[in-house]
Design a protein that fits this description.
There is one protein chain. The protein is of the alpha/beta class and 217 residues long. It is 24% helix and 28% strand. Strands 1, 2, 3, 4, 5, 6, 7 and 12 form an eight-stranded mixed sheet that branches. The longest helix is centred in the middle third of the chain and has 12 residues, at 98-109.
């Protein structure tokens, strides 16, 4: 019967040629034990900093995602417990952030439409704005900002305006609805500055440079 993996009984040992193994006591951790670790995000939503201390990377894909977009599987510690996380490379991160949706809403209030979504000055790269499949639910937007892919909710009136160069709602009304949530002085520029692109890139770099941990097959 496999033992539970905790921060008290888990250690990292170094074998020849600096191979580091994740162990419980004197026994190397198995794939079955690794899969039992709680899968939790190590990157914070708000500032994209690390939510805990990374122990290292494991070159094993428990969810059969080896052919997925570039990512890492990380063992990390939070509040004295070990967890595992899947972290995607910045350009495919799809990092969810409240200001991501508000930023796109501000662009739409400024006049951005589907027909003019190209990578112009001041426009995010690879912008997608998708309507909700339900009448009351929000849509979403996804885009690249400073090398990091962000994702956020976008209200339906904004997605309608994005897809129609002659929206039913006036731009003034869109600004009113945006600033009711984002603040009276909100602009696309001020909202873009609040997106933690540097934080995500820094966290990714730190995790990618963390030691590789070996586990038993």
């Amino acid at each position: 019967m496999s033992r539970q993996l905790t921060t008290q009984n888990a250690t990292i040992t170094t074998a020849s040629i600096q191979v580091q193994a994740l162990t419980i006591g004197k026994k190397q951790v198995t794939l079955a034990v690794f899969r039992q670790l709680e899968d939790a995000n190590i990157i914070n939503t708000l500032d994209a900093g690390l939510a805990g201390e990374p122990w290292g990377r494991v070159n094993y894909h428990p969810d059969k995602c080896a052919d997925d977009k570039e990512h890492l599987h990380v063992v990390w510690e939070k509040d004295g417990e070990l967890r595992r996380a899947t972290v995607y490379e910045p350009s495919v991160a799809s990092h969810r952030h409240l200001k991501a949706g508000l930023y796109v809403e501000a662009l739409i209030a400024e006049g951005l439409t589907y027909a003019h979504r190209g990578n112009q000055a001041g426009r995010p790269d690879r912008l997608q704005v998708v309507r909700s499949r339900t009448e009351d639910g929000p849509g979403f937007a996804q885009f690249i900002h400073r090398g990091v892919q962000f994702r956020g909710s976008v209200r339906n009136e904004f997605t309608f305006a994005f897809n129609d160069s002659r929206p039913d709602r006036s731009r003034e009304e869109l600004w009113h609805r945006l600033r009711h949530v984002a603040g009276p002085d909100a602009t696309s520029g001020s909202l873009a500055e609040q997106l933690p692109a540097l934080g995500y890139t820094t966290s990714w770099r730190r995790l990618k440079e963390s030691p590789q941990l070996f586990i038993a097959v």
